[in-house]
Amino acid sequence: MMQTVLAQLVSSYNPTGPDTHGTRVMWPQGANTSVYLDLNRFSRQTAWAHGFMHTYALWLGPVLLALVFVAVYAMAWWKGATRAAALLVLGGIGTLVALGFNLIIAHAARELRPYAVHPHVLVLVPKANDYAFPSDHSVVAGGLTFSVLLVLGGELWGRRQQMAHALAEATPRRPGLPPGVRALVVANVVFGLLLCFARVYVGAHYPGDVVAGYVLSSAVVVAFTLLRPFAYSVVDAVEPTVLGVVFRRPALGRAGPSAAPGPPAHSAPSVPSRP
Q1: I want to staple 23 with a disulfide (CB 3.0 to 4.6 A). Which of 53, 111, 121, 255 is the partner?
Q2: Residue 238 and residue 231: Cα distance in Å, rounded?
Q3: Which ranges of 132-255 does DSSP label H, i.e. alpha helix?
């Protein structure tokens, strides 16, 4: 009985894709095919890069993108920049939603993997048993990249209490970006674009697959930022509570406008009494 079940599972497995009668290549067919084959020839001529590109296309690229995302969130958490943290949370949720959309679009488009259409191309990663369009790796790249890009505004990095106190001053101070944020944003963009390139280089996707995934997740993340007024109000309500530790370090929990240092109090001078 067990042998029969295993035989059926093996016979039903198709290493070239889930549907051999699916779409051969998405629009624009000519450009997708020609660029893919050109990059595949380039891959054959650069064997020295195969090890790195194999690792980067499979797991190193997504891990680096996730580490940069976490690092930026950690900086916002340490600085008490709750609005920057809220935007990053929205971006993370948007990326997950984009991955869900990706599954729906993939089953609607039913584009075969390029190595199923061109069986003689060089493939540097294990052949997947799913559809090619859009690329889920590029969905992650676009979502995490744009999530970090959205927190470049310096006003997001001021603590809410400090900003409220500054509004009462004659010359309010505008908070700036902490050192290192711009470098992390640039690194995230480079890591994301390199991951998209790597997925084509290793033979797993057409160029249109990675472009579609990147644009899809970027659009979803940007759309989620329309919810930022609601997210800001939720964070402002949660911050004074014990749950505020999610958005800022505990040492900043009790600070507020009333706790801001003011001028020292002076007692009124005593008037000597007359005899």
Answers
A1: 111
A2: 10
A3: 136-149, 160-167, 181-201, 207-224, 228-238
pLDDT digits (tens, 9 = 90+) for 207-264: 999 999 999 999 999 999 898 888 888 888 877 777 767 777 776 654 443 333 444 4
Distance CA 24, CA 235 (A): 47
Q: How many CA atoms lie within 13 A of 205 on its CB side?
A: 27
**Number of domains forming the structure of the chain:** 1
- Inside any domain, residue 44: no
CB proximity list for 227: less than 8 A, separation 6 or greater: 90
Q: What's the rounded Cα separation, in Å, for the pair 58 and 51?
A: 11
- Give the separation between CA 53 and CA 199, rounded to whole angstroms: 9
- Does residue 258 belong to any structural domain of this protein? no
Task: List, for residues 8-48, the tens digit of each pLDDT value.
Answer: 333 333 444 445 566 777 777 888 899 999 999 999 999 99
Is 20 part of any domain? no
Q: What values do phi and psi take at 111, rounded to 5?
A: -80, 130
Structure tokens at 265: 């109090």
Closest to 223 measured CA to CA, from 141, 139, 150, 136: 150
What crossing angle do the helices spanning 61-79 and 136-149 adopt, rounded to 10°? Answer: 20
Is residue 93 domain-resident?
Answer: yes
Residues 6+ apart with CB under 8 A from 65: 140, 141, 144, 145, 188, 191, 192, 195
pLDDT tens string 94-104: 999 999 999 99
